[in-house]
Amino acid sequence: MNIERKDLLLYAVTDRNFLHGISLEDAVEQAILGGATCIQLREKAVDEGELINRAKKLIEVCHRYNVPFIINDDYEAALKCGADGVHVGIEDAPVAEIRRIAGKNFIIGATAKTIEQARLAESSGADYLGVGAVFPSPTKKNALRITPELLKEICGSVSIPAVAIGGITAENVKAIAGCGQSGIAVVSALFGAEDVRAAAEKLTEASKAAL
């Protein structure tokens, strides 16, 4: 397994639009110091060259603390910049194709909203799943909602770990307690906080309590 369950306890997904006057590098470091166990760089509005430049700065921070660094969607950029892996959505490149190109040691995460999608991702070579949105999400307002019951069914249908995502806060995560997730993925609840490190600490404890 390229990523362990413990690496998904607090999976931080970046969004510079939420930052309060600090650089993304500083925000990511504060998140890690507060307990973030994996970092995903999400940049929807830049070209590949700029994505790689931004990624390299974060790789240095993440690897300083032995935290896996994932790029959203673009597996080619992830391979070029030396990222540990990629996370792909249902509409992105197939997991099997990425695994064939990237090799066995590259981390591949895949979004799953149904049991069928989860099982296909696992059989195609995915290392972990992202399942959601479990709550209304400020970053993906039209995202399909996943009930706690379906989250539990999806997590139980595969042997690879799954991280819950979508509108998760330290306060509402208790609603998915015991659903089988290995952790939570957060965006605004972390990078939108005035004190990123303190938010990460609170989210880490909440994630542990919900396992």
Automatic annotation (TrEMBL):
2-[(2R,5Z)-2-carboxy-4-methylthiazol-5(2H)-ylidene]ethyl phosphate binds at residues 137-139, 167, 187-188. InterPro entries: Aldolase_TIM, ThiamineP_synth_sf, ThiamineP_synth_TenI, TMP_synthase. GO terms for biological process: thiamine biosynthetic process; thiamine diphosphate biosynthetic process. GO terms for cellular component: cytoplasm. Its cofactor is Mg(2+). It comes from the Bacteria. It catalyses: 4-methyl-5-(2-phosphooxyethyl)-thiazole + 4-amino-2-methyl-5-(diphosphooxymethyl)pyrimidine + H(+) = thiamine phosphate + diphosphate; 2-[(2R,5Z)-2-carboxy-4-methylthiazol-5(2H)-ylidene]ethyl phosphate + 4-amino-2-methyl-5-(diphosphooxymethyl)pyrimidine + 2 H(+) = thiamine phosphate + CO2 + diphosphate; 2-(2-carboxy-4-methylthiazol-5-yl)ethyl phosphate + 4-amino-2-methyl-5-(diphosphooxymethyl)pyrimidine + 2 H(+) = thiamine phosphate + CO2 + diphosphate. The keyword Protein biosynthesis does not apply. Binds 1 Mg(2+) ion per subunit. Its EC number is 2.5.1.3. The keyword Nucleotide-binding does not apply. GO terms for molecular function: magnesium ion binding; thiamine-phosphate diphosphorylase activity. Keywords: Magnesium, Metal-binding, Thiamine biosynthesis, Transferase. 4-amino-2-methyl-5-(diphosphooxymethyl)pyrimidine binds at residues 40-44, 72, 111, 140. Pathway: Cofactor biosynthesis; thiamine diphosphate biosynthesis; thiamine phosphate from 4-amino-2-methyl-5-diphosphomethylpyrimidine and 4-methyl-5-(2-phosphoethyl)-thiazole: step 1/1. HAMAP family: TMP_synthase. Condenses 4-methyl-5-(beta-hydroxyethyl)thiazole monophosphate (THZ-P) and 2-methyl-4-amino-5-hydroxymethyl pyrimidine pyrophosphate (HMP-PP) to form thiamine monophosphate (TMP). NCBIfam families: thiE (TIGR00693). This is Thiamine-phosphate synthase. It comes from Ruminococcus flavefaciens. The gene is thiE.
